């Protein structure tokens, strides 16, 4: 049977065929109270070296079974037990939902998801452009280390204490889902924006192994570091720095390779194409793009 064959069942003989799987001996199965055949706790189907001929589907069909210590080891996929009570209701805190189900927030854990991380930060910079507070955006990709840097010369993320969280506004938007200045209404910081739900930069933080944010605002420089959705340093302010009268926000992040597919890589040409589109739509902005260890600096200007 080919790997992309449809799922087949033969309940009368207590065997089950699944994608990339095949028959399992009856000791691995049991009947629940409704008489439905279910897998025993800890059984995972998948491609392993422990393969055996299938007595159900004939010669040539192989069965593979891996016995796991717990269902958590199969990334939440598998067969549930009969029991279903309050102890099985999970309450995910903070940015745990993002790390648990990243596809809900960025679409995939492949290359498209990697690029989505860049777009989320980039859209924040473009929002500053469209609000009339910035006219330059810098994007740098280091193809050797996978560090991504995005900077704008806008107003800079606010750094004063948020009245609800008791943390700086910077730490709030980086670590709390649905925290942002783009929900509309009199209290919104933007009349128009590409992001409307306050999950962009916090999702990137959650899916990054390391992140460092620098804000230049009101003549001061602010720095704070994050990792996997958590703040790992306090917000540090420097009144004296060598950055002149610079204003704006710089976000540097290194994606978490334990979340993304091992084959996922950044494609500078895809990012370049996206930047060209944004330059066309925002002629008042100059966008600088550099892919280190890939190509020389490129100015995308209309």
Question: Could you explain how this protein is built, in words?
Answer:
By secondary structure, this protein is α+β, with helices and mostly antiparallel strands. The protein folds into two domains: 8-89, no CATH class; 99-301, Histidine kinase-like ATPase, C-terminal domain (Heat Shock Protein 90). The chain contains six helices and 16 strands. The strands form four sheets. Strands 8, 9, 10, 11, 12, 13, 14, 15 and 16 form a nine-stranded mixed β-sheet that branches. Strands 5-7-6 form a three-stranded antiparallel β-sheet, with no helix packed on it. It has a two-stranded antiparallel sheet with strand order 1-2. Strand 1 and strand 2 form a beta hairpin. Helix 3 (111-130) packs antiparallel against helix 5. The protein is globular.
Number of H/I helices: 6
Quantity of strands, as a count: 16
Percent helix range: 10-25%
Give the averaged pLDDT, no decimals. Answer: 75
Element pattern in H and E? EEEEEEEHHHEEHHEEEEEHEE
Second CATH tier, the architecture of the largest domain: 2-Layer Sandwich
CATH overall fold name of the largest domain:
Heat Shock Protein 90
- Which residues form runs of ≥5 with pLDDT under 50? 1-26, 41-77
Radius of gyration: 25 Å
> How large is the share of residues in beta strands?
25-35%
Distance between the termini: 56 Å
Counting helices, strands and paired strands, the structural category is alpha+beta
- How would the global form be characterised? globular
Supply the number of structural domains.
2
* CATH class call of the largest domain: Alpha Beta
* CATH homologous superfamily grouping of the largest domain: Histidine kinase-like ATPase, C-terminal domain
Major beta sheet summary? 9 strands, mixed
